[in-house]
Write a structure and sequence with these properties.
The chain is of the alpha+beta class. About 25% of the residues lie in helices and about 30% in strands.
Length: about 180
């Protein structure tokens, strides 16, 4: 396994749309190694998720995991999930503002509106169909990662940039101000 280099904001790869993965190739050694490396990279940098576009690979693959994450101390846990060819369908018009960060936008936080409940359809790393309802923080992370696969970063979703904060200032001035789902 290997820790992969994460593209930062400004790298054109973050604005490209990832290609769907051929389901027959999910179990190939190359795809399995990419998934393992993405999981290791996400954990190394305490990300709540990581999309393949962030590691310079234009395939529709994302990984998600929230386990007592120091970058999201109050987030409810989300078990490790591998999302291949994810499709998100909002199940409500309701959105909620919540804090997000991104390994491609280092040391920043911003308040982002997201649907509070979505249907997530994808394949897992064995190629099995996943079809579930994600709510609240889980829904937020799936929307953030699926956006990456479509060339969208969380800054694009902010209603305005007035809450955009360096994490040191965010810890001092914003951390107690919470309107988020979790
Ligand atoms: Ni991100």
């Amino acid at each position: 396994m290997a820790i992969l280099k994460v593209a930062r904001l400004g790298h054109p790869v973050l604005r490209q749309v990832a290609e769907p993965v051929d389901p027959r190739s999910i179990r190939s050694p190359a795809t399995q190694r990419l998934i393992d490396d993405m999981i290791e990279t996400m954990r190394e940098y305490d990300g709540a998720g990581l999309a393949a576009t962030q590691v310079h690979t234009l395939q529709q693959i994302a990984v998600i995991e929230v386990l007592a994450n120091p970058r999201y101390p109050d987030a409810p846990p989300v078990p490790l999930m591998v999302l291949v060819n994810p499709v998100i369908t909002p199940l409500t018009d309701a959105t909620e503002e919540g804090w997000e960060g991104c390994l491609s936008v280092p040391d920043m936080r911003g308040m982002v509106p997201r649907y509070t409940a979505v249907r997530l359809q994808c394949l897992d790393r064995e190629g099995q169909v996943v079809d579930l309802v994600a709510k609240d923080f889980f829904a937020r992370v799936t929307q953030h990662e699926t956006d990456h696969l479509n060339g969208i970063v969380y800054l694009d979703r902010m209603r305005n940039l007035s809450t955009l904060a360096h994490v040191a200032e965010w810890n001092k001035h914003w951390l107690g101000i919470r309107e988020q789902a979790d």
